[in-house]
Specification:
Elements lengths: L1 E2 L6 E3 L8 E5 L5 E5 L5 H19 L5 H14 L10 H12 L5 H18 L12 H13 L4 H20 L28 H10 L2 H13 L3 H5 L6 E2 L4 E5 L6 E5 L2 H10 L9 H8 L4 H12 L6 E3 L5 E3 L4 H13 L4 H8 L4 H6 L5 H8 L8
Antiparallel strand pairs: 1-2, 2-3, 3-4, 5-6, 6-7, 8-9
Helix pairs in contact: 1-2, 3-4, 4-5, 8-10, 8-13, 13-14
Length: about 375
């Protein structure tokens, strides 16, 4: 039994089968047979016509992911099976950002938003196509444009990680089969990176001599506990356990709970200023930090200048200026001081909250004396 039209797709059915078979020309113009898995004659005919249309577009070089997706959606609607329910890159990105806003630090969220904005702008019209229509070549073009904008190698690496995170989320939701973020950044991506410095004990003392009451606390917990600026200024008295002589807090960036023993100098200072309430240790700094305008970081740089300490600004590969010394350098100073004192990396990571040894290594600056001591352990030989 068959139903046909000359030179067009038609359907046929074997007497012993309940399904109709579509007969149509493939992308090379050859006649092929394919079961429609449909029992209704009208529905099967529509399917055969769609098979023919898709292959005709391929023969004529007019096929693309977006076209096929629309055709599949239309076919699914015809047979009452819904649609592929695809979302555009723009819509999915907005939803992804809303999800990230729930448990992401403000600074990190702003970075995500900046990356998302650049991605949508550089994808141009493709940003409004289904997220499944984005191919590796499209992402490659995005990174070519980012590089042309003058982004530093480290910034390109961060952009790649964030965009990869976005598309991996789409994959987990079964919106795409594979992530299109397959670009491999050049091997020299880390070369020429600006090396951050550490504060010497003398410089930290110079800062303390010029600091007001709240900055003294922030600097001490930064240097003796390795806290980030946001965590340092948002400490409350409940985070200080005088009984166990330790600081107990949750890192805002990672959500990790850390317990760090209090150095005698920090313990003495906190004991001297301790209050009965459970409020903030640095209320004014915490309020300023919550504004998100970077004023606290700028105030610290001003404190450095007042103390006679240069921020050691240098030009990066991305042509912008970067300070080699900032509040974050106190965190690196903490980790480096422990390393130079012989504290192993695993223990250092348990206090900094680092989960990656490679990342922790970038926070480690060994002194010449420590290196010399290590060299002296080698056996003596005569030439």
């Amino acid at each position: 039994m068959c139903y046909s039209m000359s030179y067009m797709a038609y359907i046929t059915k074997h007497p012993k089968s309940k399904f109709w078979t579509a007969v149509y020309r493939d992308d090379e113009g050859k006649w092929v047979r394919q079961s429609t898995k449909l029992t209704g004659k009208g529905e099967a005919r529509k399917a055969a016509d769609d098979f023919e249309k898709a292959n005709r577009l391929a023969r004529e070089g007019r096929a693309c992911v977006a076209v096929f997706r629309d055709m599949c959606d239309e076919l699914l609607k015809k047979i009452g099976a819904g649609t592929m329910a695809q979302k555009s890159v723009r819509v999915f990105t907005a939803e992804w950002l809303r999800g990230k806003a729930v448990d992401t630090a403000d600074g990190t969220l702003r970075r995500y938003e900046g990356t998302a904005r650049r991605l949508l702008e550089l994808l141009e019209r493709k940003a409004d196509l289904s997220i499944s229509a984005i191919e590796p070549g499209d992402i490659g073009e995005v990174f070519d444009k980012l590089k042309a904008l003058g982004l530093a190698p480290s910034s390109l690496s961060v952009e790649r990680a964030t965009i990869g995170n976005l598309f991996n989320s789409a994959k987990e939701m079964n919106l795409i089969r594979e992530s299109p973020v397959r670009i491999k950044l050049a091997r020299h991506i880390q070369r020429g990176q600006v090396k951050r410095l550490v504060f010497t004990p003398t410089q930290v003392q110079m800062l303390l001599d010029k600091a007001n009451a709240e900055w003294k606390v922030a600097i001490l917990v930064g240097y003796y506990c390795g806290l980030r600026l946001g965590d340092a200024v948002n400490l409350v008295w409940d985070n200080v356990d005088f009984g166990k002589s330790q600081l107990q807090f949750t890192q805002h960036k990672t959500g990790d709970k850390l317990e760090i023993p209090l150095h005698s100098s920090l313990l003495a200072h906190l004991s001297a200023i301790a209050k009965d309430d459970t409020g903030l240790l640095c209320p004014k700094l915490a309020t300023a930090y919550s504004s998100g305008n970077g004023s606290v970081s700028r105030d610290f740089m001003a404190l450095m200048r007042e103390a006679g300490i240069s921020s050691e600004k240098v030009r990066t590969a991305g042509k912008s200026m970067l300070s080699r010394l900032s509040f974050h350098a106190l965190r690196k100073s903490f980790n480096s001081a422990l390393a130079n004192a012989g504290v192993d990396q695993e223990l250092r990571m348990s206090m900094t909250g680092h989960q990656d040894k490679v990342v922790n290594a970038t926070y480690t600056q060994l002194e010449h004396e420590g290196k010399a001591k290590a060299i002296s352990l080698l056996p003596a030989l005569k030439a």
